[in-house]
Amino acid sequence: MTKLSTLFLGGFIALASLSPAIAEQVTIATDATFPPFESVDADGKLVGYDIDLMSAVCKAAELDCNIIAAAWEGMIPGLTAGKYDALISQLTVTDARRKIIAFSDIYSHPTFRFVAKKGADLDISPDGLAGKIVAVQTGTPMDAFVTKTFPKATIKRYDGGSAPYLELTAGRADLHMSYEAQITHAFLNGDNAEKFELVGPQYTGKDAPEFGEGVAIAINRRNADLLAKINAGLAKIRENGELAAIDAKYFGKN
Asked: Residues of the signal sequence (predicted)?
């Protein structure tokens, strides 16, 4: 190699070392069947509260994020297998889940309710729901709670978050349990508000361990660096008011 070539190569390496590193893309999965938190609009675009929140977190943390739709039942296995880097889909933090995945700081504390046809006069108790058909999304806190608390009920489980509502409106289920905000803002509007209503008490994680500590972003336990960056981004949007603005956009909170 000539002296000139050596100088050229040395200069190229020096310039390369000064160039900013290209950020690796972070793949984030969501179950897009749960409006207003996550769904697909008429143009095929992912929209919703969690989509806006995750986008804001990624921008604040300077992460190159790609949010994709995924089937609910495969999300946590996909995360642990390395198929996804993170999950955002109103995931509640529970001891059972902490054993296999890591969680960001909690960003929401939801309440849970039953919804049923108006005038059904249901007694929300283990004996009162004996023989009643309760529709839930499989593998959710609602599934776990109903299974444990109402053993005499007939429980129908569905993979997607929208399917239980179809069963309820078609008369194939007596009740459905979900996040109160989801029922209120995605189901009890228009004609549905005239035919259906929230029934029974509000439930939180303080009432039953199945409902967890709150809602957070899930990350592979082996990726401590990503966890730290997501928490930093979440803290930033909480401090600068973006999180409150997203809350207000979807739920009218101040």
From this structure: 1-23
